Amino acid sequence: MQSTVSKNSSQEKAQGATSLIIHVTRGIIRNRSTRRKTMFVLLMVALILLVSGSTFLQSTLNPREHPAEFILFWLICAWLTLTAMLLAIFDLLTLRLEARMAERASRTKLGMRKTPNEE
Is the dihedral of CA 97, 98, 103, 108 positive or negative? Predict the structure, then answer.
């Protein structure tokens, strides 16, 4: 009986954590300023890790002595950078979409179907 209760509580905790992660991700993706702040923080953390890994952590991250730590450290740096790049690409695509939508709205407002360049 007690193992069933502990299984349910651990499953509820996992579902709660998953739900929280999904909500935070949606918030970051939907809000432009939050997305840009997140990109900035990710790049700053990656830059700090890059500088520290190349300077004072170099002896600790020696690939011959500590290969697992070396690989994990640089994978984290790459993951942070890649995440920031993907957010930047997403931001660029949303800006282009918003510009197209604004252009269409202004065309319909002015009653124009084609711009002079399209004729």
Answer: positive
In degrees rounded to 5, what are phi and psi of residue 68?
A: -65, -45
- CA–CA separation, 92 and 10 (whole Å): 40
Residues 6+ apart with CB under 8 A from 81: 42, 43, 46
pLDDT in tens, 105-115: 998 888 866 55
Cα Rg for the chain, rounded, in angstroms? 23
Q: Is 115 left (phi over 0), alpha (psi -120 to 50) or beta?
A: beta
Spatial separation of the C-alpha atoms in residues 28 and 90, rounded to whole Å: 11
d(CA 32, CA 28): 8
| pTM of the predicted protein model | 0.72
Helix, strand or coil, per DSSP, at residue 55: coil
> 98 by DSSP, 3-state: which?
helix
